[in-house]
Amino acid sequence: MSLPNCPQCNSEYTYNDGDLLICPECAHEWKEGESTVEEQVLIKDANGNLLADGDTVTVVKDLKIKGSSSVVKVGTKVKNIRLLTDASDGHDIDCKIDGIGAMKLKSEYVKKV
């Protein structure tokens, strides 16, 4: 019986472990027959441009920081963003802002540089 290649790294060395298929090279696990194509959430900035992990964005509106008297000013550049796929509260960007620290932003308040 021939097992399918890994859907993530295309390794041919997959093996069965109960009802799961496992790739020893990238440690990806999936069920046979399960759709292996993951849906990607498309996250767009305030101008409708697609965002990706590692992009640099600029804040387009003054943003008050909850629980603090600090404000993220318009024009603040945020480097190396990380997109969140499970943004149940609307904050779909994880980042670090110089002088402020780690925080989450909504993509509707940033534009891609």
What separation lies between the terminal Cα atoms? Answer: 51 Å
Number of strands: 11
* Shape assignment: elongated
Average pLDDT metric: 88
Number of helices: 0
Largest sheet: spatial strand order: 1-2-3
Description:
With 113 residues, this protein is mainly β. The protein has two domains: 36 residues, N-terminal domain of TfIIb; 57 residues, SH3 Domains (SH3 type barrels, Roll). It has no helices and eleven strands. The strands form four sheets. A three-stranded antiparallel sheet has the order 1-2-3, with no helix packed on it. Strands 7-4-11 form a three-stranded antiparallel sheet, with no helix packed on it. The radius of gyration is 19 Å and the shape is elongated. The mean pLDDT is 88. Pfam families: YjdM (PF03831), Zn_Ribbon_YjdM (PF08274). This is Alkylphosphonate utilization protein. It comes from Acinetobacter gandensis. InterPro entries: YjdM (IPR004624), YjdM_C (IPR013988), YjdM_N (IPR013987).
Topology, element by element:
Blueprint: E1 15-17, E2 20-22, E3 29-31, E4 57-59, E5 63-64, E6 71-72, E7 77-78, E8 82-83, E9 93-97, E10 101-105, E11 110-112
Which keywords apply here?
single chain; 113 residues; mainly beta; N-terminal domain of TfIIb; SH3 type barrels; 2 domains; three-stranded antiparallel β-sheet; 11 strands
Quick take:
The protein has 113 residues and is an all-beta fold. The chain is 0% helix and 29% strand.
